[in-house]
Amino acid sequence: MSDLSDFEVTNGEEEDIFLEKDEALIRQTKEETTKWFQSWYQTETSKNVGDISNEPDEDDSNSDGGILSIDNDDGSEGSPRHVRRKYPQWMPKADLKEIVELYIGQEFVDTRQFNDALQIFAIQNSFDYTYMRNEKTRITSICKRTCGWRIHASWSYKRDCFQIKSYIKEHNCGTHYYNKKASIKWAANRYLEIFRDEPNFRAIALKEMIRRDYNVDMTLSSCHRAKKMALGILTGKKAYKRGFLEACRPMICVDACFLKSEFVGQLHAAVARDVNDDIYPLAYDICECEDQHTWTWFLSCLLEDIGNPRVHTWSFMSNRQKGLLNAMEDLMPGLEHQLCLRHLHANFKRQGFKGKAYKDAFDGAARAANELQFKHYMSVIRGMSEDAFDYISKIDPRTWSSGEDHKRQENPPPLSTTQI
Ligand SMILES: [Zn+2]
To answer: 33 falls in which pLDDT band (50, 70, 90)?
Structure first.
């Protein structure tokens, strides 16, 4: 019975999943399923139903047996062509509540789509399955309790899709209350609208709801994580974070300002810039004042969410307010930190160095393309006033001039923190 070769377990090198499995269990599973399949095969072949093995456009060396299979991985030529049969195509369901049906011949774009469909199907039918084969070109799954339910799908080179080739749909081992296929990600997406309507919906109520809807016993901590994930999806946090990580310049600007309404206090904000040089807001909070304590809290929340600035090689820009500098030194000691040019120039002006000539020389030094240019503009400032030169020389040029700092060259032109 050549078709039973389907039940052979592939060797461990090809099949990662089996490395972790107990060999005895696999043998037992194989024997039980084979036995069940043999008896089923005898009844079914006498009825000759559920067979698409004689499909004209599928080359099938097993077609003479009338077996419930269109499995054909060898690609040999088969029977003459007749009418090309249309198979149902799997449409990924936007709504996970929609009932999933699986059919022989059903087509999928790839293995991932098939696995998704299989997962939702198993949850909806309250059972868990395990893989006998899980390869790029073919997947065989059986009921975890080996009741005989089995599905096999493989890549159809002719139709250029992943297709269900054989399917034993009878399932008679009852409900599996512990179903690993009911994952946190699935629960978050399935019950998304509940959290949209009621963000405070409790995890314990979610647990009860899943049990009632699907006969699945999910742990409370998994429900908590599902709730967190759902709220994350709803606030767009995930997409937003990805946008920052993948499409923004590696610079984060932070600043604070006073709130001038009846609610006194200060607003802290952190922004990045996207590839169009537009502002990309990252985070904000409202605090009673701007000091080291409030900056530490704000920055630690921000870093917890976006990650380690050293790993991502971000640099920070600010007006170097004292509390902020201390907080940054505490959280990210020695990290590159740049000055806001507008603030620096305002301080420069406040020292009495006003007028267009000072501003042009200052801008020239700040935007210098190399050290030579930077020195040239510094000598221009020196020519105008020795005091101005002394004042500006005290500030580390790496924090404000692109001529001294390659990071600024990567991120031109410097953004003023007042734009935040
Ligand atoms: Zn079963």
So the answer is: low
Per-residue pLDDT of 326-364, as tens digits, reads: 888 888 887 777 888 888 888 888 888 888 888 899 888
pLDDT at 70: 57
| Distance in Å, CA 118 to ligand 1 centroid | 14
d(CA 195, CA 113): 26
What residue has token string 């043998």?
Answer: 27
Please give the distance, rounded to the nearest whole angstrom, from the Cα atom of residue 98 to the centre of ligand 1.
22
CB 48 within 8 A of CB 66: yes
What CA–CA distance (Å, rounded) separates 354 from 352?
A: 6
Q: In the structure, what pLDDT confidence band is assigned to residue 189 with cuts at 50, 70 and 90?
A: very high
What are the distances in angstroms from CA 105 to CA 52, 161, 269?
8, 11, 55
- C-alpha 80/C-alpha 129 separation (Å) is 37
> What are the pLDDT digits (tens) for 66-107?
334 554 444 444 444 444 567 888 777 767 888 899 999 999
Give the distance (Å) from ligand 1 centre to CA of residue 126.
Answer: 9
Listed in order, strand segments (DSSP E) in 98-224 are 107-108, 129-134, 138-143, 150-156, 161-168
For the segment 12-26, the average pLDDT, to the nearest whole number, is 48
Are the CB atoms for 383 and 415 separated by under 8 Å?
A: no
Q: How far apart are CA 208 and CA 216, in angstroms?
A: 9
Helical packing angle, 292-306 and 237-247, nearest 10°: 90
Question: Side-chain half-sphere of 5: how many Cα atoms within 13 Å?
Answer: 7
Selection from 55, 159, 52, 167 nearest residue 109 by Cα: 159
Which residue is it, tokens 């603030």?
343
Average pLDDT score over residue span 404-418:
45
Q: Ligand 1 mean position to 367 CA, how many Å? A: 70
Give 226's Cβ-side CA count (13 Å radius): 29
Measured in Å, residue 50 CA sits from the centre of ligand 1 at: 20
pLDDT, tens digit (0-9, with 9 covering 90-100), for 222-235: 999 999 999 988 88
